[in-house]
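Weekly structure sync, notes
Attendees: PL (lead), two postdocs, one rotation student
Agenda item 3: pending single-chain targets
PL asked that the sequence for the first pending target be pasted directly into the notes so everyone works from the same version. It is reproduced below exactly as submitted, 139 residues in total.
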Amino acid sequence: MNLRIALALGAAVPALFAAPGIAQDSKSSDDALAEKVVNNTNPASFQIYGVTPAPKLIGDKAVQGGKALHIAVTGVGDPWAAGANVPLLKPVKAGDRLVVAFYAKLAKGDIAAAKLPAQLQIAAAPYTALFGKPFDLTT
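Predicted structure, written out during the meeting:
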């Protein structure tokens, strides 16, 4: 079975927010939220590993920022054998509240639904997971 997943990771997603709340001031909510993003949200900066062929950056008007990564995977193997690393631009400290958001969808293909395991983890050995869960994907 060939599972083809299009991860549509646009301008504000996947975004990690280190924020206890959004301040209500003269700025719009979107501007205030954008200031809280701690990672590089440009899909071209994401480090994808364990998949062949290499992911393809595509235009997608349906996602924020208009850019997405198309990633072809087989759907078999160990969950840690393939993944995406998203670089942080700002530090995350103990006690920060984190919100993780991303777009992911199945490209039209062989199956109608699949599970995508996602987790937030430390980027150095022993790669401790902070939290994670599987997400249901559909077209």
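Discussion points:
- The radius of gyration is 16 Å.
- The beta strands are 4-7, 15-18, 47-49, 56-59, 67-72, 83-85, 98-101, 105-106, 113-121, 129-138.
Action: rotation student to compare against the earlier draft before next sync.
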